[in-house]
Amino acid sequence: MKHIRNKLSIASCTLLSQSALAATEIDNAWETDTSILYYSEDERVDVTKLIATVKGELSDSDGASIKAILDTMSGATPTGAVKQSTPSFTGASGGGISAGASTAALARFDDTRAAMSVDWKHTHDRTMNILYNGAVSIENDYRSYSIGATLEKETESRSDKFTLGLAFTMDEVFRVGENATPAPLTLVSDGIFFGEGEKDTIDAIVGLTHIINRRTIGQLNLTYGSTQGYLSDPYKVFSVIGNSGAEVEQYTEKRPGSRSRIILAANLNHQTYPANNIINASYRYYTDDWEVDSHTLSFSYNYKFGGAHFIEPSVRLYTQTKAYFYKNSITNDPADLIPTVSILPEYVSADYRLDDMSSYTIGATYGFSTSSDGKLRARLAFIHQTFDASEFDTNDAIVAQLSYRKRF
Amino acid sequence: MLSACSTFTNMTVSENVKPWEKDILAQDGMQIPADTMRAYTDEHIYFSKEAASGGNGVGGGGCGCN
Predict the structure, then answer these.
(1) Which residues of B touch A377 (CB under 8 A)?
(2) Looking at residue A28, what is its pLDDT?
(3) In chain B, whose CA is at the least distance from the CA of A159?
């Protein structure tokens, strides 16, 4: 009898301990997500990006995630010079340019970027979370440091969540190998340089996420951002051309020392009935004091099939107006005998990314749940950009991405 | 057309959702963003190639992407 009682005691204790272990495993759930992305432009820039994220619950009230990123970038990038220009002395991100290696309108470069981001989430109470973020990014010619915090507060009914976030970023900008920036609005041939450039950014966001119904959730975000300091690109130049269109001089660019922006973003997710597929829609309006106004519209449709599979076609439409100081080139014919410096505007940039531009992205993602806790995603997308005045009218790019998420 | 109208109606009708009715909203695909990895990489691609950036979060650092 005593022998049976002892066996029952042991069995009971074992059962209780296993229940406690299961509870512990749920409370300490971990997740990894890794991705490799390949981005390739038509005869221009190639980028390979490796990303690994680990996220976990450290306790009932705290969770953390770490993201590590490694980018390798190479190829040819527009310098801002016109295609008829004499060889430029500029080179971007680790690459130099030698006469004859490429047209002066394009500069070859190669660069490697390593970055890390850490997020810490603290659950203050059942309706409030605080998220802290820190990030570092290091390249051959750029260093970025960022810290931020976001407060999330839900209503008692959990149908609404308010968000308030603040972030500070400090960036150091310089030409690779020189730790210097070119003197603005000076002749490239004069080779006048200053020290490293620095810019500081503050961003603030307020948001509202609202459960519309059992199958629909919406979100509105309003962001204000302000950047001060060195906002020019240390590699970009612009051409002074004669009446024939041929370059006669080449100058370093100069952008304003400040930039303020306001962004309104809306997101909507809806699961259809009775098919139970998911529609994602988003719209973003952006405006800043460089007179860049842009609209972004995105849609995706997540179609489930075969139990564990999905296919998600997507489309993104984008349009922007040019910065007020954007010019493809400045005209000053030598025969007019007018010193160029006397006609230059206060700020000039021929960076094509500041031009009037519209683009579309079409793509599709295939997903497969490898187990109850694993998900593989394979994505392919095509981006087409059309520029109004830039030396290069269009830019096409392919994006291929493979990602795998695993929950433990 | 009828399906699109029905879907639009289903999107916009407001209702009070009880905690036990949030199973659909808890799905990965219903989160904003639905795929944080894709959202992060897309933000970086378009930040490098367009004049506008941001809108759905702050921080995370910058880059000198050419």
Answers:
(1) 35, 37-38
(2) 53
(3) B17
Give the chain A residue whose CA is nearest to the CA of B36. A33
pLDDT tens digits along B38-54: 999 999 999 999 999 99
pLDDT of residue A104: 80
Q: How many CB atoms lie within 10 A of CB A355?
A: 24
Cα dihedral value A255, A259, A264, A270, nearest 10:
60
Average pLDDT over residues A57-85: 93
pLDDT of residue A103 exceeding 50, the answer is no
**Pick from B49, B52, B63: CB nearest A142:** B63
Task: Look at residue A86 in the predicted model and tell me its pLDDT.
Answer: 62
Contact call for A211 and B32, based on CB within 8 A:
no
Helix ranges (H only) for A276-341 are none
Which residues, numbered 28 to 57 in chain B, qualify as contacts with chain A under a Cβ-Cβ cut-off of 8 Å? 28-38, 40-41, 44-46, 49-57
Facing B62 at nearest CB: one of A92, A144, A270: A144
* Interface contacts (A, B; CB < 8 Å): 209
A246-268 pLDDT, tens digit per residue, is 999 999 999 999 999 999 999 99
- Give me the DSSP letters along A4-25: HHHHHHHHHHHHHHHHHHHHHH
Testing the interface with A: which of B7, B58, B65 to mutate, by most A Cβ within 10 A? B58
Q: How far is B32 from chain A (nearest CA, A)?
A: 7
The token pair that represents B33 in the structure block: 């963003």
Q: What is the DSSP string of A225-281?
A: EEEEE--S-TT-EEEEE-TTS-EEEEEE-B--SEEEEEEEEEEEEEE-TTT--EEEE
Q: Under a CB-based contact definition with an 8 Å cutoff, are residues A404 and A376 in contact? A: yes
Question: Whole-prediction pTM value?
Answer: 0.89
Question: What is the Cα–Cα distance from A14 to B54, expressed in whole angstroms?
Answer: 53
ipTM score of complex: 0.91
Q: What is the pLDDT of residues A360-392, one digit of tens each?
A: 999 999 999 987 789 999 999 999 999 999 999
Q: Encode pLDDT of A200-227 as tens digits.
A: 999 999 999 999 999 999 999 999 999 9
Question: From CA A220, how far away is CA A162, in angstroms rounded?
Answer: 10
Residue type, A281: A
